[in-house]
Amino acid sequence: MQGVQLVDHPLVQHKLTLIRDKNRSTKSFRELLKEIGMLICYEVTRDLPLTNVEIQTPVATMMAPQLAGKKLVFAPILRAGLSFAEGMLDLVPAARVAHIGLYREPETFAAVEYFFKTPTDIADRLVIVVAPVLATGNTAVAAVDRLKERGAKEIRLVCLICAPEGIEHMRGLHPDVPIWTAAIDEGLDENAFIVPGLGDAGDRAYGTK
Model-level pTM? Predict the structure, then answer.
């Protein structure tokens, strides 16, 4: 699909199989979510610009590459987005974090906002929205809507799994936001859960119902 990057690295696909298993413990689910987040972070940041700086090694002076340009903001959609983003923060500890609290209304599947806080300089940063699943796409669209209202200009979306319906919704309303995902599943059931999916990521990550 245009604008969608499938991360097919063997380690990502292996860990995705593990995390889908309904018998996975809450602790193991969170750990795998964090590990996959770190691995996908390599892909979503692959094209970050570099500049050469002069450094002194124990042996000699040299010109060495260093990240240049916009700094990062990770924007996890609460709740399960937090564990997913933790692995990314391990790789880029200097990144800022925006917290986006959204939940899906169970009858209409509409996104309901309950918390939103971002760095003040978000317009000058690359924003990576972090959501374990892209089902209907309603919460991801709402998150990107709010980020753009706050001034964000460059946004990327990272998901563990997507439904085709969610991708179509997201790309239709925000074609300027590329998507990275480990899997595109079959579709949605009558309750708007991804099939085969992995269930409710928030409940599985934190042991709630």
Answer: 0.91
- Asked whether the beta carbons of 38 and 88 are under 8 A apart, the reply is yes
Q: Is residue 156 part of a domain?
A: yes
Q: For residue 54, is it within any domain?
A: no
CB 192 within 8 A of CB 186: no
Instruction: Report d(CA 209, CA 202) in Å as an integer.
Output: 9
Instruction: Read off the CATH number of the domain in which 116 is found.
Output: 3.40.50.2020
Residue 93: CB partners within 8 Å, gap ≥ 6? Answer: none
Q: Is residue 180 part of a domain?
A: yes
User: What is the tens place of the pLDDT at every residue in 61-89?
Assistant: 999 999 887 799 999 999 889 999 999 99
Report if residue 62 sits inside a domain: no
User: Are 99 and 119 within 8 A, CB to CB?
Assistant: no
